[in-house]
Amino acid sequence: MKIIVTGGAGFIGGNFVHYMLKKYNNYKIICLDKLTYAGNLATLESVMSNDNFKFVQGDIADRSFIYNLFQEEKPDIIVNFAAESHVDRSIEDPEIFLKTNILGTGVLLDACKKYGIKRYHQVSTDEVYGDLPLDRTDLFFTEETPIHTSSPYSASKASADLLVQSYYRTFKVPVTISRCSNNYGPYHFPEKLIPLIIANALNDKNLPVYGKGENVRDWLYVQDHCIGIDKIIHNGKIGEVYNIGGHNEKTNLEVVKTILKELGKSEDLIKYVTDRPGHDMRYAIDPTKIKNELNWEPETSFNEGIKKTIKWYLDNTSWWENIINGEYKDYYKKMYENN
Ligand code: NAD
Ligand code: DAU
Questions:
Q1: In the chain, how many domains are there?
Q2: Model confidence over 242-285: pLDDT tens digits?
């Protein structure tokens, strides 16, 4: 089996590459990544010399490059992680989100249609469902929940999902889509809440919490997401959407305080800053479908996962210090200096 993993130098794609190479010693994994600010070859360092692995630098929105790659490699499966993934950046500058997340997905689908494929899998997000009210804890996102987006990021991901479904219906491209909740774990870029809080706390810097810190996210350890995608690409039904999430709802403040406690740092580091415009209140996945059809359930509790994650950041300081001391510095200053 030959799998092209797009965006495999990023957080979840990188974890997926490691997971698949370890699990299947007869699969060829090709990582295609543009290496944007979020792509990091250090994440893939330990597999670079693996005979079953190949890294190719390129843009999913570059049609001739993608067509050449399909012609040359004749992949069986595409798993598309490549995306601009940060909501705050999409609010600052939406255009690249439209180009990569929508047009890039369109190019990959055209390549699948032209050259043939066993499976195209789109890695999507629970953000396409919009948000849920804080006072309705009985409500969850199911696969039938209508698409209702808030940010340019989620709108671009929803557009991509619609395109994927249209290529199934109109051209019979064999697709699946997964919509997962917030991931955390190793190799998570420090612009996102959990790694940002760990890195800042370790450096005794302020911990920026948007608004009152009452927004709820449904956290999933990244390896559980990888297991879910593995099950979907092998046994998921063509044309179907699968939600992935583990009923692990926490307010942002709870998450921040948990990290501070684990690190033995003071809550005085918390600083309430201006809220994100259009900030989604609550995400919460109903994973019944993937549990019933594919026997998927999360294996790592938040309690265990956050400890493992903190340990990883403590054991791999150079991985994230190289990022926060690089061009990311300018982004951090721009985003947080006026707060
Ligand atoms: P990330 O930002 O860490 O990684 C994205 C990767 O895609 C980077 O390596 C980047 O270089 C690459 N990339 C960006 N534009 C590209 C292009 N035009 N061509 C090729 N490569 C390109 O993102 P992530 O958090 O790992 O998310 C991966 C996917 O999972 C995204 O599609 C995201 O929407 C989705 N998702 C993320 C989460 C989460 O909590 N992080 C949850 C659900 C779904
Ligand atoms: O739900 C899945 C989504 O989760 C993915 O589709 C996105 O790619 C991924 O980035 C993530 O989106 P969020 O916006 O939920 O993640 P983020 O880590 O940016 O923020 C988590 C929560 O923490 C959110 O309520 C905003 C808040 N926050 C974030 C940052 C960066 C803060 O309070 N302070 C911060 O500095």
A1: 1
A2: 999 989 999 999 999 999 999 999 999 999 999 999 999 999 99
In the residue annotation, 153 being an active-site residue is answered as: yes
CATH classification of the domain holding 81: 3.40.50.720
User: φ, ψ for residue 30 (rounded to 5)?
Assistant: -110, 120
Q: Is residue 320 part of a domain?
A: no
Residues 178-216 have pLDDT tens digits of: 999 999 999 999 999 999 999 999 999 999 999 999 999
Q: Is residue 141 part of a domain?
A: yes
CA distance 339 to 336: 6
Mutate to test the pocket of ligand 2, among 193, 225, 283 (most ligand atoms within 8 A of CB): 193
Q: Tell me the per-residue pLDDT of 28-48, one tens digit each, with 9 for 90 and over.
A: 999 999 999 999 999 999 999
Is the distance from CB of 262 to CB of 307 less than 8 angstroms? Answer: yes
What is the identity of the amino acid at 243? N
Domain coverage including residue 96: 2-187+220-248+280-301
